[in-house]
Specification:
heterodimer, A: alpha/beta, Aspartate Aminotransferase, domain 2, Aspartate Aminotransferase, domain 1, 2 domains, eight-stranded mixed β-sheet, four-stranded antiparallel β-sheet, 14 helices, 39% helix, globular, B: 13% strand, pyridoxal phosphate (chain A)
């Protein structure tokens, strides 16, 4: 019973099925943050008294923990950010801006669309979009066509769709991009909570990570950068803790990762993130995937029995989230009634309006599971859905 | 007590009658069914309330010193909430609407649906009602 590891569940009688938005935190993550603030709260990398050294050590150890966790060759390739959105914005403005073309998919969430618009790129004008069909499959034929016509591009693709749980075959996406001398960033916001990521095996150039979607604290994330690209990366913000020497004529920067982590970071958050990763290691992805796979199948099975339900993608190649609607019922109504029945899930467009427009819907009801969820949670959801449907019909 | 305050008070009394939250929402759904149908000619983009996940349409008519509002939604529960909001604010004087503290609706205890959330259509509706009053 994994729920026992998460204090939230002993304090709440909510059936929590909004894990794609954020996950609950295991005890050790919470404790580590309290400990930092109560026992050795000090700034990192600047002061040299005992507590400051301890804070710095734990912060840098967290970097090593994440490095090993995703099999990055060196810790210098891990740059902490405040989340996937910042990671994408960082790479977009400090590296990808020099590319003539940026290639995304039609399944992206707003964090991987809006930064490109902010650069003045729009469809066909600096931005190319690979279609996903109505089953949300990535169109590899179109992708290769775009790459052929636009070699040396920057490709930025989500690993797992936050709105639908669809998994992109990122290994194939990366391989094809490299064939056409393009560089790839993967938005891994939804992946690390569900599956093992090996950045060397993937041969990915940039991989964006979210802590809070991976059982860690909010306000923390990271970007993995391939070593050969580190030299080309410019800081997109500078200031304290990033410099080697400053006078009024010029500044010289420290090496990576420090030159990219301007200002005081979310120290407790980063330390907490490492604890989340250690917890995940303890549980193991094998156990996580087994539990989630069983739950996902069960969820799909039970939902399928409900009248007039509409799904948008196959269960195969999907993980975590299941998105659906009911004929002639607005998802908002379901969301409100489920809330009254203590079921927490998300209704709406899930910050992925373009794919919603493609599917000609305004949004969906999204159930997103984590390994700590149980069949009992799903049963409660189904009972509540039935009741809500009765009330609305 | 202003007319608006009185109306909030009356609706609150009705809602407080239900101890069971789901029954309360069944009642709200029923209120939505009482909502006067909004002619389809008004269901156009310019009348859509900004910030809604479900669609809410709102129109305003001025009769002498009073404003009258009509509205609807494509969502069943939101329709009930539209009914409540219109009951509170429609048929009020411009002066009273200008002065009204829109936060008064939080007293209804429908905090889960009437929230300061960016996506809340009901909050968007009240903003629009205030705008109409300020421009009138």
């Amino acid at each position: 019973m994994f729920k026992n590891d998460f204090p939230y569940f002993s304090n709440s009688d909510i059936v929590y099925l909004d894990n794609a938005a954020t996950t609950q935190k295991p005890k050790e993550v919470i404790t580590s943050q309290v400990e930092y603030y109560e026992k050795y709260c000090a700034n990192t990398h600047r002061s040299s008294f005992g507590d400051a050294n301890k804070a710095t050590l734990n912060y840098e150890n967290a970097r090593k923990t994440l490095q090993k966790f995703i099999n990055a060759p060196t810790k210098e390739q891990i740059i902490f950010t405040k989340g996937v959105t910042e990671s994408i914005n960082f790479i977009a403005s400090s590296y990808a801006k020099k590319f003539d073309k940026v290639i995304i998919s039609s399944l992206e969430h707003h964090s991987n669309i809006v930064p490109w618009h902010m650069q003045g790129r729009t469809l066909g004008e600096g931005l190319e979009v690979v279609s996903c069909n109505d089953n949300l499959d990535f169109d590899f034929v179109e992708y290769e066509d775009i790459l052929k016509q636009n070699p040396n591009s920057f490709v930025s693709i989500t690993h797992i769709s936050n709105a639908f749980g669809k998994i992109h075959d990122i290994k194939a996406i990366i391989k094809l991009a490299h064939k056409y001398k393009s560089v790839v960033m993967i938005d891994g916001a939804q992946s690390l909570a569900h599956m093992n990521i090996d950045v060397q095996d993937l041969d990915v150039d940039f991989f964006a990570i979210s802590a809070h979607k991976t059982f860690g604290p909010t306000g923390v994330g990271a970007i993995y950068v391939k070593e050969s690209l580190l030299k080309e990366l410019e800081p997109y913000q500078t200031g304290g803790a990033t410099i080697h020497e400053v006078d009024f004529l010029s500044s010289t920067m420290l090496d990576s990762p420090y030159k990219f982590e301007a200002g005081t970071q979310n120290i407790a958050g980063v330390i907490g993130f490492a604890k989340a990763l250690e917890y995940l290691e303890k549980v193991g992805y094998e156990a996580i995937m087994k539990q989630e796979h069983e739950l996902y199948e069960y969820l799909t099975d039970q939902l399928s029995k409900l009248p007039n339900i509409i799904f948008y993608n196959d269960t195969e190649d999907s993980i975590g989230s299941k998105s659906f609607n009911f004929k002639n019922i607005i998802h908002d109504d379901i969301g409100i009634l489920l809330d009254k029945m203590k079921i927490a899930l998300r209704v709406g467009h899930h910050c992925a309006q373009p794919i919603m427009k493609q599917l000609n819907i305004k949004g969906t009801i999204r159930v997103s599971i984590a390994f700590y969820n149980t069949k009992e949670d799903i049963d409660k959801l189904i009972t509540a859905l039935k009741k809500a449907l009765d009330m609305l019909r | 007590m202003t007319t608006i305050e009185k109306r909030v008070h009356e609706i609150k009394e009705d809602l407080d009658f239900f101890e069971d939250e789901l029954q309360k929402y069944e009642y709200i759904i029923d209120l939505g069914k009482k909502l006067e149908e909004l002619d389809s000619q008004y269901k156009v983009a310019e009348n859509i309330v900004h910030g809604c996940t479900s669609q809410v349409w709102l129109i305003c008519e001025r009769k002498e010193d009073k404003l009258f509002f009509k509205g609807t939604s494509d969502a069943v529960i939101v329709k009930g909430l539209v009914y409540i909001i219109l009951k509170i604010f429609s048929d009020s004087t411009i002066e009273e609407l200008k002065e009204a503290d829109m936060d008064i609706v939080y007293e209804l205890g429908l905090s889960e649906v009437i929230t300061p959330n960016r996506q809340s259509g009901v909050i968007g509706m009240m903003k629009k009602i205030k705008e109409y009053a300020l421009k009138a």
